[in-house]
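Q: Here's a chain of 725 amino acids. Please give me its 3D structure as C-alpha cells.
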Amino acid sequence: DPQITQSQESCVKTVVRSCAECIKSGPYCAWCKLLVKIGPIKYLYFIFLVPTWSTLHLSILNFICQVSAQLIFLDFPDQPWTFTFKFKRAEGYPVDLYYLMDLSYSMNDDLQNVKSLGKDLLKALRQITKQSRIGFGSFVDKVVLPYTSTNPKRVQKPCPDNERFCQPAFGYKHVLSMTDNEILFNKRVSEQAISGNLDVPEGGLDAIMQAAVCGDKIGWGNSTRLLVFTTDAGFHMAGDGKLAAILEPNDGRCHLDAKMLYSKSSEMDYPSVGQVMQKLVENNIQPIFAVTKDVEPVYRRLKDIIPKSEVGVLTSDSSNVISLIQNAYRNLSSNVIVTHDDLPDHVTVMYTSNCPNGDLPSIRGTCDNVGIGKEVEFNVTVTAHKCLNEQSFLIGPLGFREKIRVNLTTRCECECDDRKDSNHQHCNSQGQVSCGTCSCNKGFVGQKCECKIGDKSEAELRQACMPVNGSMCSGQGECVCGVCHCSPGEDGRSIYGRFCECDDRSCPLSRGQPCGGRGRCSCGTCNCNPGYEGDACDCRKSDNRCRTGNKVCYGRGNCVCDVCNCTVGYTRPFCETCPGCPALCERVASCVECHMDERKGNCLVCQGVTYREEPDLKEQRLCKRRGTDGCQMIYSTKQLQADSVCISECPEPPDLRLIIGGTFSGVALIGILLLLALKAFIHMRDLKEFRRFENEQKKSKWSKADNPLFKTATTTVQNPNFGGD
C-alpha cells in the first residue's frame, strides 16, 4: 500500500462529527473508534483512512501488449489518488490500412496509379511490420440534387460523354475488406471506374463514418488502424443536407447493404466533424489525409480537431502516396496520446508523464518522438467528487487497442464493527455507539445524546448556535442543546460569547501586549484604565491641544489622545471648518433680514447669529438672497452662523407711465404690421391671377376659316348703265 506522509500544510482544520465526515474532510484525517476523550471535544486519532489499490493482469511489454497494467481496482475517499502505468512501443506491431479514395472525375489520373499500388503499398508496410493488411473503399457524394444530377442518364453516366469507363453515381462503397494479398487488392481496385457529381465538395465524412463504424465488414483487426483518405476537394458536413431537403441527422451507425453501398446516403444528413472524431477515437482509427495542395489548409484545420491524425500533400497524380503514408505513419506512431473513455459522472482524470513538458497536469497525457522500444511512464490522477457505487472506465493510448480498465469505489462510510446496542450507557441510554460517537435515538441529540429536543428539530437547535453569515459556534466550540460550549484556545486564550466569537487576546497590541497592558480586552475592544485612552490604550487622557477658548473641537468631534477626531466633513486641528459642506445661505437668510430691519431690536429667530459692520471675508462664503420686501441681501456665512451683513440692494418701483405707453404703442405697432401683411398677401394673390390670365391669352389660337352663315353688313349695287368712265 502507498505510504502517506503528513505535513503541516496538508492538515485542514474543520469540524468533524463522524467517521464519514472525517473521510470526506481530507486525506490526512484520522478517526478513533474508541470511547476515549480528552478535554471537551478532542479525541485521540488511531485509524488512518487511506486509499487502497490493486493491479491485476500485469503484462510483459512485448509485441502483443504495449501497456503494462490491464486491470486496476481503486477503493478511495473522494480525494485525488494517483497511480502509474507504462507504455512501450513494440516492434512489429500489426498494421491494418484502409485506402479510402475519392472517385469523382477530377481524380481520374490518380485512380490509374492506385490500380497498381497494392504490391508497393504492402511492401512499404512490411518494412514497418510483417503483420500488415490493406483494404479499399471509394466515395463520391449523395445522389440527390444539388450534389449530383438526378437525370436518369446522368445518374448512370455522371462523367463527360467522351469517357468510356464510368460507373453510376454513388455515395460510399466498400470494395475490399482487409487482406494481405496484394494481387487481390490490385485486381479489385483495377475493376473500379471513375464516377462524378456536380458540386466541388464531396461526401467524404459519410465515407469516413461508415468505414469507422462498420468494423466487422471492413475487417479491422487487433492492430494499429490507419485510414488513408485521398481527395482533391473539400467535404460536406452536418447541415448541408438541408439543401437537398434531407433533415434527418446522421445516427453514427453502420448502413452498408448487401452490395456494400451506403444505403442511407440519400436519407440522412452528413455527419458533423465532432461525430466523425468521436467514432474514430472510439474505434482506435488514425486518419491520414492525403490531399492536394489547394485543399491542404482545410485538412490542416481538420487535423487540429481530430487527435492522432496527419496530413500529407499529394502530387497531381498521387504518385507520391507511398512515401506520404510512410512519413505519416512514423509521425503517428511516435506521438503517444493517452486519454480515457466512458468516464463516470463526478469523476475527473488528469495526466502527467516523464516526457519533456509532461510535468504539467493535463486532460490528456502526451509524449512526442517515442521510438520503438522506448518506455514512457504516465501518472494518472483520479478524483471522485461525490460518493459513488462501483464504477469503471477505460484509459489507454489513442490508436491502440490495449486499454486499462479502472474499477473504482469511494469509501464514504466507515466499517467499525460496533456492537449493536440502541441504549448504550455512553450515550445516556438514548443511542448506540458508531465508530466512537453516539448515533442518538429519535428525539435526542448531543455528543452523548444528552439533549432532548422536544418540539424543536435538531436543525433548529444547531441554527441557534450559528451567528448570521457565520459558522457553528464560530468554529471554536460545540453546540449542545442550542447553546455554544466554547473550547479553550490552542494557545491558552479564553474563548467566550454567545457564539464563541470573543477571546481575551484579539484586541489591538501596544508595547507587545493587548491594550498595551493598560486596560482589559473585551471581545476585540479595549476597556482602558483610568487616565488612558485610544484603541490600544496607548496614550494618556488630555484635551489641551483640542481646545480653542472654552470649546473642545468646536463641539464637532471627540478629543482622543490630545487630537480631535472630527465629525465627517470637518477638518483638523479644531474641527472648525468644513470645506465640503454646503453654504448655510438659506438657513440664516431670515436672521439676516431681521438684523437689517431691526438692528436695535431682538430677533428671536437669530439667536447665536452675530452681526458685524466690517466683515472679514477671508475663507468665507458670499450669499445673495432676496428678502420679503424684494430687496437683495448680500452677506457671508461661517459654518453654522451668519458672520456679517454687507449690502442691502432694493430695486426702484416701476414707472407706470412707461408701462401704459409702451403697451399702447406695442398694440398699435402690431395692428399696423398685421394690416401691411394682409395688404401684401392680397396684392401677391391678384398679381398671380393676372399673370395666369396673360399666359392663357398667349396660348389661345383662333381659326382663320370663314363662317358660311356670316353675312357682312355692307351691300354693293352696281349700275349696269355705268361704263366706268
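Q: Can you summarize the key feature?
A: The first helix runs from residue 19 to 25.
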